[in-house]
Write a structure and sequence with these properties.
Number of helices: 6
Mean pLDDT: 94
Largest sheet: 7 strands, parallel
CATH superfamily: NAD(P)-binding Rossmann-like Domain
Order of helices and strands: EHEHEHEHEHEHE
Structural class: alpha/beta
Radius of gyration: 17 Å
Helix content: 40-55%
CATH class: Alpha Beta
CATH architecture: 3-Layer(aba) Sandwich
CATH topology: Rossmann fold
Strand content: 5-15%
Shape: globular
Strand order of the largest sheet: 3-2-1-4-5-6-7
Length: 238
């Protein structure tokens, strides 16, 4: 009997947290499809990931703000690999400004990507996940429970994502689909145009989030950690 190789779809997987998750999943023997708004970026990341295990990564251009685009990505995974076991809704954006200067366009983009984008991801993948008793994991933030100055848009999107994810968990667990939201603090990623450097060594690393995802996947089927907060163990490298 042929070995079943499980598959994952990661939104926003061409760099940062998404890419770190993809690396760890592939090392765990899971095929990974990543999406990016740029086909070039998706192809470059997939080529790099395939150096870990040849044929274990695919890259697609997809925009989480567009349900049809998300459905196309899911359909492409199913066409290539025949199954979808895990979806990691990771794509995100941050606009940080006081309400006096926050533009309607910045507000809309934040909500559309960070919250509506996750809705689109589960709507597109729900049928496939039912067939595999799969896992839907959302990447939120500690900003989903802790508000801060200049965070009106980001806080609103992440507070909403935490609530959405927890209600989604209750909707889907009776159908055999697990849902967890991971809420990281400071991560050494490219978020908000940051360029990771040695100064970020104290922060959570993208592969650390990947390890959490793998740990969740390997939890006993009867057990569901529905919300995980994760912080640097020594803030600021102290």
């Amino acid at each position: 009997m042929a070995e079943i190789i499980k598959t994952a779809l990661i939104t926003g997987g061409s760099k940062g947290i998404g890419y770190g998750i993809a690396e760890v999943l592939i090392n765990d023997g899971i095929r990974v499809a990543i999406t990016s708004r740029s086909q070039e970026g998706a192809d470059e990341a997939a080529a790099s990931l395939n150096q870990i295990k040849a044929g274990f990564a695919l890259g697609f251009a997809a925009d989480v703000r567009d349900l049809a685009s998300q459905q196309q990505a899911v359909d492409a995974v199913l066409q290539e690999w025949g199954r979808l076991d895990y979806v990691i809704a990771n794509a995100g954006v941050g606009h940080f400004a006081p309400i006096q200067t926050l533009t309607p366009e910045q507000w809309q983009e934040t909500i559309d990507i960070n919250l509506t984008g996750v809705f689109n991801s589960i709507k597109a993948s729900l049928t496939a996940l039912k067939e595999t008793a799969g896992y839907f994991i959302t990447i939120s933030s500690l900003a989903g429970t802790n508000f801060f100055e200049n965070g009106t848009a980001y806080n609103a999107s992440k507070f909403g994502l935490v609530g959405f994810s927890q209600a989604l968990m209750l909707d889907l667990r009776s159908e055999g689909i697990k849902v967890t939201t991971i809420m990281p603090g400071s991560v050494a990623s490219y978020f908000n145009n940051h360029e990771p450097s040695e100064k970020d060594a104290w922060k959570i690393q993208p592969e650390d989030i990947g390890q959490i995802v793998v740990d969740l996947i390997h939890m006993p089927a009867r057990t569901l950690p529905s919300k995980i907060e994760v912080r640097p163990s020594r803030p600021g490298g102290k």
